[in-house]
Amino acid sequence: MTVPAAMMRKVLLTACAWLVALVVLAPYVQMLLTALKPHEELFASPPGYLPESWQFGNFLEVWRVAPIWEYLRNTVLIAGLSTVLAVAVALPAAYYTARRRFRGRRMFLLLVLVTQMFAPTALVIGIHREMLALGLIDTYAALILVNAAFNLAFSTWILHAYFSSIPVELEEAAWLDGCGTLQALLRVTLPLAVPGVVTAVIFTFITAWNEFVVALTLTSTPETQPLTVGITAFIGQYEVQWQYLFAASLIAIVPVVALFAYIERFLVSGLTAGSVK
Amino acid sequence: MATVHYDGATRWYQGTERPAVDSLDLRIDDGEFLVLIGPSGCGKSTSLRMLAGLEDVDAGRVRIGETDVTALPPKQRDIAMVFQNYALYPHMNVADNMGFALKIAGRSKDEIRQRVRDAAQLLDLEDYLDRKPKALSGGQRQRVAMGRAIVRQPQVFCMDEPLSNLDAKLRVSTRTQIAALQRRLGTTTVYVTHDQVEAMTMGDRVALLDEGVVQQCGTPRELYERPANVFVAGFIGSPAMNLRQGRLTEHGADIGGMTVPVSRQARATAASDGDGAVTVGFRPEAIDLVGEDEGVAATVTLVEELGSDAYCYTTFRERESAPGEVDVVARIDPRKPPAKGETVHLRVRPDETHVFSTATGARIPG
Amino acid sequence: MRPSATTTGRVPAGRARPRRTARLEPLLWLGPALLLIGGIVLWPVVEMVLTSLREISRTGVPRGWAGADNFSALLDHPELVPVIGRTIVWVAGIVAVTVALSLGLAQLLHARFPGRRLVRWALIVPWAASLVMTAIVWRWMLSYFYGITNRVLTDLGVIDSPRDWLGDPTIALLWMMWVGVFVSLPFTTYVLLAGLQTVPDEVHEAARVDGASRWRTYWSVVFPLLKPALLVATVINVINVFNSFPIIWAMTRGGPGNATDTTTTFMYKLAFVDQSVGQSAAMAVVNFLMVVVMVLLYLRAVRWKEIG
Questions:
Q1: How many C-beta atoms surround the C-beta of residue B119 within 10 A?
Q2: Which of A24, A147, B178, C77 is the most buried (most CB within 10 A)?
Q3: Residue B363 forms part of a structural domain
Q4: Closest partner CB to A169 (pick from B53, B73, B83)
Q5: pLDDT above 90 covers what percent of chain A?
Q6: How confident is the model at residue C17 (pLDDT cuts 50, 70, 90)?
Q7: Quick check: C306 pLDDT over 60?
Q8: CA pseudo-torsion sign B237, B240, B242, B243
Q9: Domain named ABC transporter: which ranges (chain B) (predicted)?
Q10: Is the CB of B71 less than 8 angstroms away from the CB of C15?
Q11: Interchain proximity A20–C147, CB inside 8 Å
Q12: Average pLDDT for residues C37-61, to the nearest whole number?
């Protein structure tokens, strides 16, 4: 009698799981459907579930009605350069703390762990004052520095964990095989840490890509505003152009979701600082 | 190929009470196979790593041939090392692993390919050259690690417990292969192990370390037959030598009622040192089971039958003066082992006892 | 450079190492990181504290020290107490519901079923997508006249006529808290999934041999093993939710008035809407102190002493 019961359980379980997926995706489906509606249909009350006339052209039109190119360029530049800076700074720190024992090592790791917990939101007033003092308001540099600094902790942790997991003997073997310190690092250790580097890069990139509060505070012109802040301009106007807003949103969301799915399995360990094994 | 010279080499880690390696003096001849053995934490691996340049030398010198390598980085020492966990580069295939050092040294592709193929042939690895280490068995990985060392044709091989990750059977066969290979290549080799069978079977000479100090260095036979002190006596041999404190008497040494023959000379030396208390050692095979009215009566507590041999664990009660029990292990004829609980009579053969000073642990010649 | 270059005990004469370089060597590797953390994370903290003690003009020009004036002005602010109360409800409500739902979700996604990979990927979307954009689409879905929520609920017969969900502060807050749960679920579930993976299969088998029911096994065997993961997920969530800004900003701007503000949006509005930078900095300092307390709790949770 247990076989039908087990079958029932499995069917029920599968149904529940798919329902969860549906609920989770619903807002984004709604985003897509809205983006495909013509302007008149948006203000039908009650609204229709599906567009009556599918306006795929909205995804092209959106580039014309708002400076999406500029926003996107800003986002890509800021996210990209923040990532390069954060990972470039995190790599030597992570390697050194993983391989050497020195005074202040624990102190440094503690500092990193603590800063991982500080969201820029909590410090946004101070950041604004600082950038004001440095004359960096409404510049890329400000956003790049802030994004890199607040993502440094995650990158350092995950790379530290990766370097720690690579046996020291591999480097020692390389030294005996005739490599110097840097050569061993580049030829043996770094190639093995690639998954960690990829995770750090993608995660930093996505966080910077989605960053909102600091950009909202520090930028005021389309020349520097990233997409997250830029699309809120659609709302500020007298009549919200939802179809374009969501078309632009989807353009921003789809690539990062794909990247995110790619690094999914490495994320948790990095985010919880190795405390959950 | 070269000699290796440790000259007072010392390694002292910060925050520890004594040096990990304390003034190590060793001379390893050209082409010699020297085994460093000892309990864990004795400094054997540290000594090896000092030679390889992976560990700082805080005092003293290490020389390879005529070159003082004390301050040289590993890459300039021309040493190949086989690690306990093999340390194969996981992102390179077998051929690249073996050829890596030659590539770093800037050798031509043809030369690298030729030398890798020669080494692979020697080690029966030709079919695996394209595989990644992940796709190899434990024994194959071990051979690749050996191959990586051989390809280099270095001055010295360093081997740090290279067999300890293999299963028991493979360990025995690989043991003989490595020893044969080393003899064939004639490369000076320093081999670290905690396994005394490896030490006894592979080494031209064996250096036994404890607490960072060489206790004795000699041929396996010397260590077995003439242990320099109580530590060596107890470490080498399995089951371990029976070591008991006793008092010198006119006939020998008395351990709880059992009289063990001790040479006249040893008795004289011990007496001149003014100490009647000595530590007496005799190996399980130095004991005979004798008739009822001879030797000392002991109760059998356990018989360990190994097929070719059998060991009899016995115990007997000490005399009233010093109540307590004495345990003695004896090798016996495996064809007629006594039963547990049975009483046997033991006698130690003359000339097969070792006498040590209880105070210093040092061997008292005799 | 060799592995123990900095742990030298005795240095023999004639081989004196360049000791000063050795001591400064860590700075070479860690320097850039320290510079970035110090300059961009720690400096704002100092700047914030200084600002909270200064009198700042509406145009942002410092006019000298204000002592505790900013703090007392903040304490006298009629909205402060309600805002703090709302923040507590906001954080406690979102985290409690998130953790409860995630426990179930993690269990569900840990089981094997067709399409598990796809469902897991679906769960990632709210985590990866921009928070503002997710909040905006919820705002759109909750719109009085044009929102799909009203349409769905009317069609299902749950409500008779459309409601202005975001018009009423209490209901708006509840909906925003739901969005808060919605975006916190993926991370929390993933942490718990990672925790579940550490529960060895033998534990389940042992419990079954002991005759324990599924529920019993979960509560007395799996749940205790999940506790470290749960603790870490909870503390990280508390910090994140506390700092959560985009949801409220995109959906109600904390309005009407300050009726749906938490301390974070309140602080922001004080600075950039009311132009009371000093008061805002005072609020920020209070906020920050609360975050510090939570970080200390977090460090306890991850048992910092055992790391490194």
A1: 24
A2: A147
A3: no
A4: B83
A5: 38
A6: very low
A7: no
A8: positive
A9: 4-236
A10: yes
A11: no
A12: 86
Q: Which amino acid is at B334?
A: P
**B337 and B284 within one domain:** yes
pLDDT, tens only, C51-60: 888 887 777 7
Any idea what the CATH number is for the domain that residue B289 is in?
2.40.50.140
Return the domain boundaries, chain C.
78-275
Amino acid at C144: Y
SS3 A150: helix
| CATH 1.20.1250.20 at A66-271, yes or no | no
* Other beta carbons less than 10 A from residue C60's beta carbon: 13
Asked if pLDDT for residue A43 goes beyond 90, the answer is: no
Two structure tokens written together for A106: 């624990």
Q: Which domain holds residue B45?
A: 4-234
Closest residue in C to B19 (Cα) is C9
Domain boundary among B209, B234, B259: B234
Chain C residues near residue A101 by CB distance under 8 angstroms: 6-7
Q: In terms of domains, do B187 and B276 share one?
A: no
Which chain B residues are closer than 8 Å to C23 by Cβ?
none
Phi first, then psi: give them for residue C193, nearest 5 degrees: -60, -45
Please tell me the predicted confidence (pLDDT) of residue C19.
Answer: 47
**Mean per-residue pLDDT over chain A, rounded:** 86
Q: Are strands B213-218 and B59-64 parallel, antiparallel or unpaired?
A: unpaired
In this prediction, residue C261 has a pLDDT band, given cuts at 50, 70 and 90, of very high
Cβ-based contacts of A209 with chain C (< 8 Å): 130
Residues 117-176 of A with CB under 8 A from B: 167, 169-170, 172-176
Q: Which two tokens stand for residue B127?
A: 């079919």
The whole-number pLDDT of residue B283 equals 93
Query: Which subunits count as partners of chain A given 3+ CB pairs below 8 Å?
Result: B, C
Instruction: Say whether B83 and A173 touch across the interface (CB within 8 A).
Output: yes
Q: How many domains does chain B have?
A: 2
Same domain? B217 vs B314: no
Answer yes or no: do B188 and B88 share one domain: yes
Residues 8-37, chain C, touching B (beta carbon < 8 A): 8-12, 15
If pLDDT is split at 50, 70 and 90, which confidence band does A117 have? confident
Contact status of B14 with chain C (Cβ, < 8 Å): yes
pLDDT at residue A271 in the model: 58
Q: What is the pLDDT of residue A116?
A: 79
Query: Domain boundary at B234, B260, B277, which?
Result: B234
- Residue B188 is encoded by which pair of tokens? 């000076």
Q: Give the model's confidence band at A9: pLDDT under 50 very low, under 70 low, under 90 confident, else very high.
A: confident
Residue type at position B51: L
CATH number of C78-275: 1.10.3720.10
- C residues 227-246 lying closer than 8 A (beta carbon) to B: none
pTM of structure = 0.82
Q: Which residues pair with B288 in a beta bridge?
A: B347
What's the rounded Cα separation, in Å, for the pair C77 and C84? 12
A237 and chain C in contact, CB less than 8 A: no
Phi-psi region of A135 (alpha: psi -120 to 50; beta: other; left: phi over 0): left
Phi-psi region of C126 (alpha: psi -120 to 50; beta: other; left: phi over 0): alpha
ipTM of this predicted structure: 0.85
CATH of the domain at B94: 3.40.50.300
A20 interaction partners in chain C (CB closer than 8 Å): 105, 108, 119, 122-123
Residue B76, in any domain of the structure = yes
